[in-house]
Amino acid sequence: MTFTPPNRRTFVAGTAIAALAPFVAACGGGVTELRKEKQFRVSKSEAHWRRELTKAEYRVLRDAGTERAYSSPLDKEKRRGTFACAGCGNPIYSSAHKYDSGTGWPSFYKPIDQDAVGTSTDYKIGYPRTEVHCADCGGHLGHIFGDGPRPTGKRHCINGVALDFIPA
């Protein structure tokens, strides 16, 4: 068996991954790490959350998963009303702040109230993103990006399964 040295692309990619691995691991996985550090008003055991939520809700809200784009009926929801956390019922977004971002996820330019959500930095895909979570239970909702409409310029890109719609 002979040793074949890596080509330049393999060497650079491997070096970058090795250099970033400790940083990404130290930064944690978003809301799961956040829940370890902070006490929320609504606090339940993971076993209780598993019994109370559907598998899809649990995967997004408790494991910081992402639903498939265009899979949520809430992406096309046009009625007046409130979007509440599917985990605890906390009112999060108003239909007045919803818009069609074309991304396949319900999008809002701001929450009902700044105290309705919290944020943390998420490094799960190797670079920092602003994760948005329910301020009451810590459930992962989605991410905030800086490409939204006026007046905020923000796009709260939210997993529909993390929300319940309450018509006005």
What does this structure look like?
- This protein is an alpha+beta fold.
- The protein has one domain (30-167): Beta Complex (Metal Binding Protein, Guanine Nucleotide Exchange Factor, Chain A).
- 24% of the residues lie in helices and 24% in strands.
- The chain has helices at residues 8-27, 31-37, 46-52, 55-61; strands at 81-85, 91-94, 98-99, 107-108, 117-122, 129-134, 140-145, 155-158, 163-167.
- The protein is globular, with a radius of gyration of 19 Å.
- The N and C termini lie far apart (71 Å).
- The model is unreliable at 9-30 (pLDDT under 50).
What is this structure, in a nutshell?
This protein is an alpha+beta fold and 168 residues long. It has helices spanning 8-27, 31-37, 46-52, 55-61, and strands at residues 81-85, 91-94, 98-99, 107-108, 117-122, 129-134, 140-145, 155-158, 163-167.
